[in-house]
Amino acid sequence: MHQLEALYELVPRPVGFVERKYEIPSYSINLYGPPLSGKSWLALDYLQKLPRQRSLYIDLADPRIDEKGLFENLQSFIENRRIDTIVLDHCCQAPPVLPRCRQYILISRHPLDALPLLPKLNVLPLDFEEFLAFEKRFLQPQHSFSLYLKTGSLPLMAKIPEPLITARLHQTVRLIFPDPLTLRLFKILAAFNGKSTSPHQIYTLFKREHPLSKDRLYATLKAWESDGILQWFAKADRPRSAKRLLLFDFALPASMHFEKSLMGQLYTITARRLRQTAPEVTWHDKIDFFDPDSRCAYFLLPFGNPQGSAKKIASAASELDRLRCRRVVILTISNTFSFRFEPMSVTAKPFYEWILEE
Question: pLDDT at position 1, please?
Answer without folding.
Answer: 65
